[in-house]
From TrEMBL:
Gene: Rwdd3
Organism the protein comes from: Probosciger aterrimus
Annotated compartments: Cytoplasm; Nucleus
Pfam families cross-referenced by the UniProt entry: RWD
Keywords: Cytoplasm, Nucleus
Alphabetical list of Gene3D superfamilies matching this protein: Ubiquitin Conjugating Enzyme
PANTHER family in alphabetical order: RWD DOMAIN-CONTAINING PROTEIN 3
InterPro entries for the chain: RWD_dom, RWDD3, UBQ-conjugating_enzyme/RWD
Keyword Lipid metabolism tagged: no
Any GO BP annotation: positive regulation of hypoxia-inducible factor-1alpha signaling pathway
Ranges of residues in domain RWD: 1-86
Keyword Cytoplasm: yes
Main location: cytoplasm
Protein name: RWD domain-containing protein 3
Length: 238
């Protein structure tokens, strides 16, 4: 009677890159609800902490429009319909902040990630998804095909590299043998390290195919990554 009611709701939203996003919503309804706004908490394993905060802020904005009337059901319907938009807006704000702080040096510096994929069944869709993630997270590098070898080489802020890995491991990016959407299970993190002074920064993210191992090696050498190539790529041919 004095503290109100608290309850949890879990909803699946299937908007974001064809991925199931499980939102965990916590509503605390004060005694004088709905004349007073509820407290809302948002969490999700598929979203970053900043994105969860943005979802909560948008829900509170919507709640103000329903003040003095029951609103929880309307809020749930609204976020189910608008989650994709909220996440895109969150990415835009994040990019603006990154651009503003570009001139200042960060403690983490620029990081690099080298991934090996076993296969791509839905190749065109998979490539499009990787390109979108790289763009959204301001990552540069290469998606490289050479025979049966598939490599993803990324450079960017450490936090964005980490976020890319989460997306890569938790999103349904490919299809299984029956054509059903599935998560990437055959992925290996070959290397995750800070970019050194002698190594060059990629300016863009590109998808490239190579006819020979020599061509692939030259791509690494041009970027000052000869050691990275010799340590991790030849063993993949065995």
């Amino acid at each position: 009677e004095t503290h109100g009611i608290t309850f949890r709701i879990q909803i699946n939203v299937k908007e974001l890159l064809d991925t199931d996003v499980l939102l965990k919503l916590l509503f605390h309804l004060p005694v004088n609800y709905p004349s007073t706004l509820p407290d809302i908490s948002v969490s999700s394993d598929q979203l970053t902490r900043a994105q969860c905060t943005d979802v909560k802020d948008k829900l509170l904005e919507q709640a103000k429009k329903h003040l003095s009337e029951p609103m929880v059901h309307d809020l749930i319907l609204w976020i189910q319909q608008h989650l994709n938009y909220v996440i895109k807006q969150s990415a835009t704000v994040c990019h603006e902040k990154t651009t503003l702080s570009k001139g200042t040096s960060t403690e983490d510096g620029i990081w690099m990630l080298l991934l090996h994929l076993d296969h791509m069944r839905a190749k065109a869709k998979y490539i499009k998804t990787v390109e979108k993630w790289a763009s959204d997270l301001r990552l540069t590098g290469r998606l490289m095909f050479m025979g049966k070898i598939i490599l993803i080489l990324l450079q960017g802020d450490k936090s964005n590299i980490k976020e890319y890995l989460v997306l890569q491991k938790t999103s349904k990016v490919d299809v299984d043998s029956s054509g059903k959407k599935c998560k990437e299970k055959m992925i290996s993190v070959l290397c995750e390290t800070k970019v050194q002074a002698q190594q060059k920064r990629f300016q863009t993210f590109e998808v490239k195919e190579y006819s020979t191992l020599d061509e692939l090696q030259k791509e690494f050498e041009t970027a000052g990554l000869t050691t990275l190539f010799s340590e991790f790529v030849p063993p993949l041919l065995k």
